[in-house]
Design brief:
Blueprint: H1 23-26, H2 32-45, E1 51-52, H3 64-74, H4 89-103, E2 112-115, H5 117-129, E3 135-140, H6 145-152, E4 156-161, H7 172-178, E5 183-189, H8 201-213, E6 217-221, H9 237-240, E7 248-253, E8 266-269, H10 272-285, H11 291-302, H12 306-327, E9 342-343, H13 363-374, E10 376-377, E11 379-380, E12 390-393, H14 398-412
Parallel strand pairs: 1-10, 3-4, 3-5, 5-6, 6-7
Antiparallel strand pairs: 2-8, 7-8, 9-12, 11-12
Helix pairs in contact: 3-11, 4-11, 5-6, 5-10, 12-14
Length: about 425
């Protein structure tokens, strides 16, 4: 008997093509802020005089005492082995003490999970809370990672837009209008990335009481807590509204306060059952954070805040310079940021205008034009859920800041409209 030919239904040539990448991961957008920073660095390496305003990290070195603690930790065999998934007990104790000292929130060690940077805390928070289809209210402009983390966890981000006319601060009325019977949580970030907005205490309390009244969870990102200006204070939401503490996850880390973005140490504080669930997830995802980084974080948290005070002074000076210079550009409106190290000007008055032989219709096109024409790298508002804006970090040297915004002024023209 001869060999039977494969039937059409089983032939490899006619089988349906398999999906190479899962739809869940294929749908993730690249981090726009990291992409802009990477492109600027590539161009600089090629010899082009690019000035990058995209990086979300201090331009200062990690303080010497923290580096010394890490160097010592490298020689300690304890740090050459696996350690508890949820964090070194000593670091958890430091986080407990720091949280009480800096924000007035009293917690226990069982309420703390140490994560590989703030991004892991963001993802694990939503992964622990959300079931498929649960909605998360997401005040926009928002940090580019927030909606992607919600989607990865099976949730649905619901944008709640606040523009420059309201200083980028969403209201309770806006949140209530966006709430549905599928709403599970609210993401709250003050001081804000990308806008630098800081919610006043009375508005923090109003939002917290609204969330508590509707039985919502709140994930609050406090990583910029110490970078505030003009005598404002960043109020911790569960401190302002104590009854919300049982339905609130506080995210933080050493990255911004201590110029430690590359050390990758963040944390999550919340109810013990949620922290235990997130710890179980992390046990399969990454296990413990690098022990040397954890030892460095202990030194940071147990030390003083002199380094951040010096950074804040420099950032404040740069903030004032940047806002003034951006405001002189024809068609640009730049509210004064009160926290973090970003300015978020509206460029809607620039769009549609002929510039250098091109007519940008979107902030993405304007950002591309700025890079091509004057070698200035900025992040367009599309990355943050609000087209028509640009994000510029002022965590760079004073001379580069003035040169970079000066190039924008020459290209776009000045007229003081902003």
């Amino acid at each position: 008997m001869g060999v039977m030919a494969a039937s059409p239904s089983t032939s490899p040539s006619t089988a349906p093509p398999s999906r190479r990448i899962s739809s869940r991961v294929a749908g993730i957008a690249e981090s726009a802020t990291l992409a802009v920073d990477a492109k600027a660095k590539v161009l600089k390496a090629a010899g082009r005089p690019v000035i990058g305003f995209g990086a979300g990290e201090p331009d200062f070195a990690t303080p010497d005492a923290i580096v010394a603690a890490a160097a010592e930790a490298c020689h300690d065999p304890r740090n050459h082995r696996y350690s508890p998934v949820g964090g070194l007990p000593e670091l958890k104790a430091s986080i407990v003490a720091k949280t009480a000292r800096d924000s007035g929130l009293e917690v226990e060690a069982e309420q703390v999970l140490v994560t590989n940077g703030g991004k892991q805390a963001v993802y694990e928070a939503f992964a622990a809370l959300l079931d498929p289809g649960d909605e998360v209210l997401l005040p926009a402009p928002y940090w580019t990672t927030y909606p992607e983390a919600v989607r990865l966890a099976g949730g649905v981000p619901v944008d709640v837009l606040a523009d420059e006319t309201q200083d980028y601060l969403v209201t309770v009325d806006q949140l209530e209008a966006a709430r549905t019977d599928r709403t599970k949580a609210l993401l709250f970030c003050s001081p804000s990335n990308p806008t630098g907005a800081v919610y006043p205490p009375e508005q923090v309390e109003a939002i917290g009481r609204w969330a508590a009244g509707h039985g919502l969870w709140v994930v609050t990102d406090e990583i910029y807590e110490h970078l505030v200006y003009d005598d404002v204070t960043a109020v911790s939401l569960p401190v302002a509204v104590p009854e919300l503490a049982e339905r609130c996850l506080v995210l933080n880390g050493v990255a911004k306060t201590y110029a430690m973005t590359g050390w990758r140490v963040g944390w999550m504080v919340g109810p013990p059952d949620v922290i235990k669930a997130a710890t179980n997830l992390q046990s399969h995802l990454t296990s413990n954070v690098a022990n040397v980084s954890q030892r460095a974080a202990i030194a940071a948290l147990d030390g003083d805040l002199e380094a951040v005070a010096a950074m804040r002074t420099a950032f404040d000076r740069r903030r004032r310079t940047m806002v003034s210079m951006l405001g002189d550009i024809d068609g640009v409106v730049c509210p004064r940021p009160l926290g973090a190290f970003y300015a978020y000007p509206s460029v809607k008055g620039v769009l549609g205008r002929a510039i250098g032989g091109r007519t940008p219709a979107t902030s993405t096109e304007l950002a591309a034009l700025l890079l091509d024409e004057v070698e200035v790298a900025v992040v367009p508002g599309e990355a943050f859920g609000s087209p028509g804006y640009l994000r510029l970090s002022y965590a760079l040297g004073d001379d580069d800041l003035v040169e970079g915004v000066g190039r924008m002024q020459k290209l776009l023209g000045t007229g003081g409209v902003g």
